[in-house]
Amino acid sequence: MRKIEKEVIGAFVKGDAKSMGNTQSVFNPKTRSLDLLLHGNRIATMSNRDGVKKLWVSCGGYEKDVNGRKVLAPSRTTQSRLNALFRLWPKYIAARVYTKGGIQYLDSWPVGSSHTTINLMALRKSAVLVFESFDAPLVEDGKLEALELNSGRWAVRPEGQLGTCGWHPYPWNVVYVAAHSEQEAISKAKTQSYRNL
Known about the structure:
By secondary structure, this protein is α+β, with helices and mostly antiparallel strands. Helix content is 20%, strand content 42%.
């Protein structure tokens, strides 16, 4: 991995702005998101609103002149930057960008679904969502309950709620812990929930 990728894309992943050479991580005041730019063209966007973190990628719309016409062309630099982004992302993203037959593709293996191949160049200047995570804490000030799943494993969530995540009475995610009692499970879940943010 190149130094420019480690530093600029590393800053992008952390949510910081940084510029080096032809690559920039910049805050976009219009969308209130962080953009990763290559030669001024957006190749990735990261947003983190209401506890939901999302990452979109694009080929950046690189165009070259062919017989006086602008034609969308694959860029090895875009490919390198996006693959570095997937490697540096803090949570595993099963994806890669490659070029075949003059067309740039994104291969991804989303959790819970089958393999997908996307023609990035067909998107032109649009983007594809490659990562979405619900990063809200389990608790704010509400009461919690723990449900024993099997011996020693507990699911902790706001009192009266069902499922693994929700928005009421505040955004939350269920937390799974190993414990000997309901109180121990709730205590561990509070600690684990805040540590993961």
